[in-house]
Amino acid sequence: MKFWMFLFGAALAVAPTPLRAQTSGAITIVGEMPGAADSALVAIFEPMPGLPLNYFFAAGPNEAVVRGGKFTYQLRHGQTGFVRFQGNDAPQQLAFVEPGARVEFAIAPAKGAEAPQATFSGTNAAANNLLANRQLLNGGPPDGARVAKTLAAAPTAAGVLLALQAEMKKPNALLLAAYQQRQISKLCYDVLTAETEQRILLWAGDALMRHFSDSAKANLNLKMSRSETRKLVNSLFSRYNPALPRYRCSAMGNLGTEASFREKGVLPGPRPASRPWLRHEALFAPVADHVGRYDYLPAASQSQVVGDLLLTASALNAMSAADFAKVSADYLRLFPASPYNPVIKQVLQTQAAKAQLTKSAPATVGQNITLGRFDTGARALAFAPAPGLDTVKTLAGLVRQQFRGRPVFIDFWASWCGPCIAEFRHEPALHDFLSQNGIEVLYVSVDQPGYREKWAALAAKYNLRGYHYLASPAVQESLKPVISYIPRYMLFDKTGALVEASTYHPSEGDKLYQQLRERLQGK
């Protein structure tokens, strides 16, 4: 089951230049997190050498341990790009790094329902604070909505392009000022102005794709004719082509949008002679929609986007070892020089070694390994016999079978869902309220079955007291019509009836608690 968390103007003094070669030097991340418990963990995702940032795959340990409200972590690879970090007490955050950098940040305590705020110091702090404060077209849906409105600014592609360029003037002026005041390096300036261009392509490309898919539903109120709109798409992807070396550090992933436009014929290109990714589309379904569109990309772009998806599928155990081997065989044949190949080959070797060990492992047929309860003493999930669990096909059926006579609060999450994990920092208050009111909590993971070990480890790492269920394929299939995104929360009463299909989030505190009281009143 899958869910879906410029350089313009006459006053511009610095012209865009190709990214220079990296120099050597370790990169250190230092975080101050007042109030964070000792042994709290912060996950840190960094680019693999020569590869774009992958938010899921890590070639080795990628967690920093908080001691005395502080942690220090040295990146393994030391290459230029973006690093993402997140944890129970740390907001999900991107930061720019380059060789030799020491990136420091301090977390301000959360106020009410607001997320904690990071303030940076150290190397390129001015740029990272612009990112943290969402001033570089990285403000999420509000920025996307504003850019979508800009598409209706003029009746010609040239006019709309000028309006989009104007959207980039403010963030790039902020970066230019920081560079001219020597607060950021030239490399930092180049990478972040390039990323601003990719963000405008992201927002505009997404809106225009919705327009070409269903113009009435997209409701962009464009003044351009359809031919002018096509011209705009071609101008954008020519000017800000995500495959250009200038964008090699980008975390935006605009190749998927380019593939969709090529498939629709909006962007020119030959029809694919073979369709390897269409053949494997079902195998990629847990991590990506419509992988067949990537057949329309040039070979170099195919290599990048499919290589990245293979790493994601590996990290999430979204494919069986046999399926991963089958897809990888096609990938290695088609792209023998891909920089992803050494990593993919290592994954294949690891899977082969695990398969060998599994042959001698005792069978677990009929044993419950998917419905457990957090044992606070052992700090691990404990699994007891759960008669009939293997017959459960729906969430309601699970609640009625395993929690008869008890109201249940459901928390849907996954190991790859940053917003879900961010909500876990409110677990202590949530646990106190639920236990005082006789309400059970059931954390329902929608991870793939092969991700069981990671699921159990994360439940323990975040100290999630209560019950845990790794949803079976049948239950996940039944949830598709009703759960299109996570995090999501539900409430069942003691009879097993659903009394609230979408509650407030734990971060909303009293609003949630009052809602639960009202829904269970008299029940």
Automatic annotation (TrEMBL):
CDD domains: TlpA_like_family
One GO term describing the cellular component: cell envelope
Subcellular location field: Cell envelope
PANTHER family on file: THIOL:DISULFIDE INTERCHANGE PROTEIN DSBE
Organism: Hymenobacter arizonensis (Siccationidurans arizonensis)
SUPFAM superfamilies named in the record: Thioredoxin-like (SSF52833)
GO MF terms held by the record: oxidoreductase activity
Domain Thioredoxin: 374-523
Keyword Disulfide bond on entry: yes
UniProt keyword terms in alphabetical order: Cytochrome c-type biogenesis, Disulfide bond, Redox-active center, Signal
Keyword set includes Signal: yes
Highest taxon above the source species: Bacteria
BP-aspect Gene Ontology terms: cytochrome complex assembly
Main location: other
Residues in the signal sequence: 1-21
InterPro entries: Redoxin, Thioredoxin-like_sf, Thioredoxin_domain, Thioredoxin_ResA/DsbE_sf
Protein name as it appears in the record: Redoxin
